[in-house]
């Protein structure tokens, strides 16, 4: 989808990113890096249809002439529609010569995460005036082992039904009530047929591979 935006507001977010001080090796740092403003120059210039038509004239066959105008541009990936369920997939491998190496670094993640600094200022399903888009953690997938072999386990929170989430999923209604605390419930560690109750601290210290959050606000 291509749309024309006011250059002054095209890269504005729902909450001020300048107030963020994302700690390295945290999920906030990962999101900040993923949604950073990028400059497209030199071989990464953007093909501009408007510039091409202005240069070649509207009556000329641009494709046959092969006269395309490329221009410097800015690119930023932001969330335009806040999802009911947020799934974050961490890239836990890196290139090491001709081989892939697993990244075992611990990435810090909170029980409640605010996506507002990563949402466009015109986020479609956020009530006007809201500067928070909050999510509560309810599931984590962890991998142990190497790139060649290993074992997947999961942490899941047993909790009561989230009526706001149901309204959002089934009816598309944005949550109105202000919820800022994580959904209450008991965490469990699941490994094949073994299920064991664990603390929230144990969950937050895990080496997350996949994170699952449900929307609060």
Task: Give the arrangement of secondary structure elements.
Blueprint: H1 27-34, E1 38-40, E2 46-47, H2 49-56, H3 62-65, E3 70-71, E4 73-75, E5 85-89, E6 93-96, E7 99-102, E8 112-114, E9 134-145, E10 150-159, H4 163-171, E11 185-191, E12 194-198, H5 200-204, E13 208-215
Antiparallel strand pairs: 1-4, 2-3, 5-13, 6-7, 8-9, 9-10, 9-13, 10-11, 11-12
Pfam families: UCH
InterPro entries: Papain-like_cys_pep_sf (IPR038765), Peptidase_C19 (IPR050164), Peptidase_C19_UCH (IPR001394), USP (IPR028889), USP_CS (IPR018200)
Keywords: Hydrolase
Keywords:
UBP16 hydrolase; 16% helix; 5 helices; cysteine-type deubiquitinase activity; Peptidase_C19_UCH; 217 residues; alpha+beta; Cathepsin B, Chain A
What does this structure look like?
The protein is globular. The chain starts with 26 loop residues before the first helix and ends with a strand. The protein has helices at residues 27-34, 49-56, 62-65, 163-171, 200-204, and strands spanning 38-40, 46-47, 70-71, 73-75, 85-89, 93-96, 99-102, 112-114, 134-145, 150-159, 185-191, 194-198, 208-215. By secondary structure, it is an alpha+beta fold. It has a domain at 79-215: Cathepsin B, Chain A, CATH 3.90.70.10. Strands 5, 8, 9, 10, 11, 12 and 13 form a 7-stranded antiparallel sheet that branches. It has a two-stranded antiparallel ribbon with strand order 1-4. Strands 2-3 form a two-stranded antiparallel sheet.
């Amino acid at each position: 989808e291509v749309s024309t935006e006011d250059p002054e507001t095209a890269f504005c977010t729902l909450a001020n990113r300048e107030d963020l001080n994302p700690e390295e090796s945290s999920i906030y740092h990962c999101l900040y890096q993923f949604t950073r403003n990028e400059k497209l120059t030199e071989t990464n210039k953007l093909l501009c249809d408007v510039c091409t038509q202005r240069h070649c004239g509207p009556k000329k066959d641009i494709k046959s002439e092969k006269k395309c105008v490329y221009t410097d541009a800015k690119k930023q990936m932001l969330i335009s529609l806040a999802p009911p369920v947020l799934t974050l997939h961490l890239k836990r491998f890196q290139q090491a010569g001709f081989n892939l190496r697993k990244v075992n670094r611990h990435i810090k993640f909170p029980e409640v995460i605010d996506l507002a600094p990563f949402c466009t200022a015109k986020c479609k399903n956020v009530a006007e005036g809201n500067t928070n888009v909050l999510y509560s953690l309810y599931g984590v997938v962890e991998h142990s082992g190497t790139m060649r072999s290993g074992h997947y386990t999961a942490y899941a929170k047993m909790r009561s039904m989230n009526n706001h989430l149901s309204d959002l999923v089934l009816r598309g209604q944005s949550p109105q009530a202000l919820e800022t605390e994580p959904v209450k419930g008991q965490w469990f560690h699941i490994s094949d047929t073994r299920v064991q109750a664990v603390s929230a601290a144990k969950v937050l210290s895990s080496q997350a591979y996949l994170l699952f959050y449900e929307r609060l606000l």
